[in-house]
């Protein structure tokens, strides 16, 4: 497999991970907005922690994807 194909495959996987993290993040934010009054405190805290982790993951994957795209442009 050539280096260009390898980088394209990495970018493809990063897009999948980015999409999953974004979907989870948005879904949890929507759930939290609708259920913050009725949910138990523990569940709210867990949801906030997962939202925080997903948001950090989104930023990380985004930066990594841009590095791969820049690397692809240099080839």
Number of strands: 0
> Radius of gyration from the CA trace?
17 Å
Number of domains: 1
Terminal CA distance: 15 Å
Order of helices and strands: HH
Uncertain runs are none
Q: Helices and strands: which structural class? A: mainly alpha
Which word captures the global form? Answer: rod-shaped
Mean pLDDT: 94
Strand content: under 5%
Keywords for this entry:
0% strand
Short overview:
This protein is an all-alpha fold. The protein has one domain (3-74). 89% of the residues lie in helices and 0% in strands.
Q: How would you characterize the overall build of this protein?
A:
With 75 residues, this protein is an all-alpha fold. It has one domain. The chain contains two helices and no strands. The longest helix is centred in the C-terminal third of the chain and has 34 residues, at 41-74. The mean pLDDT is 94.
Task: Give the secondary structure arrangement, pairings included.
Layout: H1 3-35, H2 41-74
